[in-house]
Amino acid sequence: MNEVSKDYLDSSQALELKKQIPSRILELIANIEQAGFNLTLVGGAVRDYLLEGRVSRDLDFELGHQFEYDSAEWSTRINNLGTKLSRDSQYEIEFLNFSILRVSFLDSEDSSANENDWDVELAPARIESFSTRENYGHSDVNVELVSKAPYSETFKRRDFTVNAIGIEFHHDKEALSWADPFDGRAAIKEKVLKTANPHFSKDPVRFCRALRFSLKLDLSFDESLLALFKEFNLIQLSTFYFFREAKKVGYLPFFTLFFEQVDSHAIEVGPKIEAFRFLSGHGDLRLADEQELVAFMAFANVDLENLRLLAKTLQVKMNTVQGLKNLKDAVTELSSIDADFFKIEALKGAHSFLGLSQLSALKSLHLCLYKEELIKPLKMSNPQVMKQLSVFRSWLPEQLQGKDFFLELMEKGEFKSKEKSLLQYYCHFKERSEQNS
Questions:
Q1: Which pLDDT score, from 0 to 100, does residue 74 have?
Q2: pLDDT for position 2
Q3: Measured in whole angstroms, how far is the alpha carbon of residue 59 from the centre of its chain?
């Protein structure tokens, strides 16, 4: 696994990196090395360290060995390592697919709370291949676990060169060395996204990841990567991965870029994804979660059928969708009306007021205006709408005025039962108009 010539981090850089890693994780590394394994920190933690000078709390290590074992024996040795570590009272080991070990740290008297917030995964080095077929899904990959292979082989499976950079730890040494077979560090400096994976276009999720990393890291697409876009077939792309990748960069910028690239490169997309084309072209506002996305779309002239499809896919409650749609319709109808309009109409008398065509919208607005499940996602997804709602709240409080007047009218029995829910708005504005007079 180890390369012959080493490209070492300078001593100050190595020291700074190790300072950012909790002592218990450094002890874990030492224990694994003493068991005969080689460890290389890989993926996002290395990329983010180069970009931001900080070590992220998600640490992925590639495991290798100085001896070569076949896939079955290598898997057994990894599992034995997990069993050995789990016997140590400070580690809790979760055994995952492909012989990946996820390490959690059990509380101890000398541990800090911060150390328990770190996620550590130990994955055996592996080589991926694909069988010949027309359409590929995310799981249509063959995996071979290898104990001793050059980084130029084991890093090929990584999607982009900026993610195919490693930092290799060395037994009983302070020194650390770079594992950068595809010059990912240069790609970071050049702010370009490229791949060294020969099977890149066979996994539809990688197309989504390319868009996500371009948006997240502000990287341009390398010409060779753009050429590979034309080879993608996204028939098997699931809505799960489509929305998962979109969420990581705030949804809206992803949707627009996705359909721009699909159209530009004539990429075939399955009907389940094509059904969400209405999400494209709504600007670059970044949203935090599913509720914010649905709330934004409810005020973006998206029809109710598409809104329900979106909510069902994202598992947002349908009554929330209907509430947002009712709120949007009410805001649209009342946006050109101010409180003085209703005050003036209230002075004309109850029967005249109850004949207003805007009363249904007014009631719908009031029923939605103070529901936190509707208002909270709008706070981030649509500040302009929130300004409108703030105005509406100023003249339509949660507890309406004119309660005594309302009870007095009810006692007279002059109004039909269906008018009672609207009569309270007459009483409210009648009292407000009298207060101002």
A1: 92
A2: 45
A3: 19
- Residue that is written with structure tokens 């029967």 in the block: 351
Q: What is the pLDDT of residue 413?
A: 80
Low-confidence ranges of the chain (pLDDT < 50): 1-4, 109-111, 113, 136-138
pLDDT, residue 118, reads: 87
Helix axis angle, 290-298 to 304-314, nearest 10°: 180
Q: Report all structural domains of the chain as residue ranges with CATH numbers, in order of start.
A: 7-193 (3.30.460.10), 203-286 (no CATH), 315-436 (no CATH)
Which pLDDT score, from 0 to 100, does residue 435 have?
A: 81
Asked whether the beta carbons of 14 and 46 are under 8 A apart, the reply is no
Flag whether the pTM goes above 0.90.
Answer: no
